[in-house]
């Protein structure tokens, strides 16, 4: 694969990504796919879906786990509803995440992405040890499928995430870096975090955001690429420094406004193409 192919976050029937016809229209060669519902993960649907991707010339580079009942309405709601952290849904979601990894394998995808939820920042918190255990369990399942598990950044500062990765201690555990999430959740400046996480970065999102007036308490605002506080030229320069050559996967989480989403992703593709040629020129 060429260095830094453009990608976009896509959805079939679940998640906030763009639909595949839009991916084709934009001429984007790679996607991160939000896992479809279980009813769309049958052998027949998988065969049909693979044929469609081949026709469109699109490669899935990462399948993202997602679950019924997750809500990103505000930061406190994320803490209680997202990922494997909420205790009451943990066992069922862990089982489903393994099924999603199986689906990814059947789609020939080597990376599984996940918003694991708010890992406690203090390792003395009893939940911390439980999350270590469940993460090892999922990593080991992915390892049997020759897959990496890529944790999405944002809910914790880079130092906390680094300690967590070390404590889980599995060779196939990596990071999906999302610079906008660092800003949205108020978890630190993205580019120093990217440098610290360096060799753990296996996939990334290109998403932009502005800081909240009360970082960590209320959301910052997700905005079109290039209009926020990320600084994409510096972002690509830093990706180059840490040796990242994988896809630049654009995310714009306004699925409720599909026309605007398509137009803004088109603008993001143009911006990234321009920055890529500037940096290689
Ligand atoms: Mg993201």
Helix content: 40-55%
* Unreliable stretches covering 5 or more consecutive residues: none
**How are helices and strands ordered from N to C?**
EHEHEHHEHEHEHHEEEHEH
- C-alpha-based Rg, rounded: 18 Å
CATH class: Alpha Beta
What's the helix count?
A: 10
Strand adjacency order, main sheet? 1-2-3-4-5-6-7-10
Strand content: 15-25%
CATH topology annotation: TIM Barrel
Shape: globular
Number of domains: 1
Class inferred from helices and paired strands: alpha/beta
Overall average pLDDT: 95
Q: State the major sheet.
A: 8 strands, parallel, barrel
Q: Can you say what the CATH homologous superfamily is?
A: Divalent-metal-dependent TIM barrel enzymes
CATH architecture descriptor name: Alpha-Beta Barrel
Q: Could you tell me how far the N terminus lies from the C terminus, measured between alpha carbons in angstroms?
A: 20 Å
Can you walk me through this structure?
With 281 residues, the protein is of the alpha/beta class. It has a single domain (6-280), classed as TIM Barrel, CATH 3.20.20.150. The protein has ten helices and ten strands. It has helices at residues 20-26, 43-56, 75-81, 87-106, 126-144, 158-168, 179-184, 190-197, 232-241, 258-280; strands at residues 6-10, 30-34, 59-64, 111-114, 148-152, 173-177, 201-206, 208-210, 221-223, 248-250. The strands form two sheets. It has an eight-stranded parallel beta barrel with strand order 1-2-3-4-5-6-7-10. A two-stranded antiparallel sheet has the order 8-9. Helix 5 (126-144) links the parallel strand 4 and strand 5 (148-152). The protein is globular, with a radius of gyration of 18 Å. The model has no long low-confidence stretch (mean pLDDT 95). The site of magnesium ion (MG) has 6 residues, from loops.
